[in-house]
Amino acid sequence: IREIVSDGQNGFLFKPGALAEMSAQTITILKNPQQMTQLSHQAQQSIDISFDIHQMVLQQEELYHELTVRT
Q1: 66 in Cβ contact with 58 (< 8 Å)
Q2: What are the pLDDT digits (tens) for 45-57?
Q3: Is this model's pTM higher than 0.85 or not?
């Protein structure tokens, strides 16, 4: 999750069992639609960049090339 979510920028991270903190943050964001929209847009941008199909194919090709060179 930490590879995808940047705490406070495109989502929120909580320690396991931190239900009170998670609940409080959920209430805060539900009361602030502008912040919710901003987080949503930033989350979508992060996903678009991190999981771009062309970039993922290039990474796989590089990995396969690396593995074939080693053998």
Answers
A1: no
A2: 998 888 889 988 9
A3: no
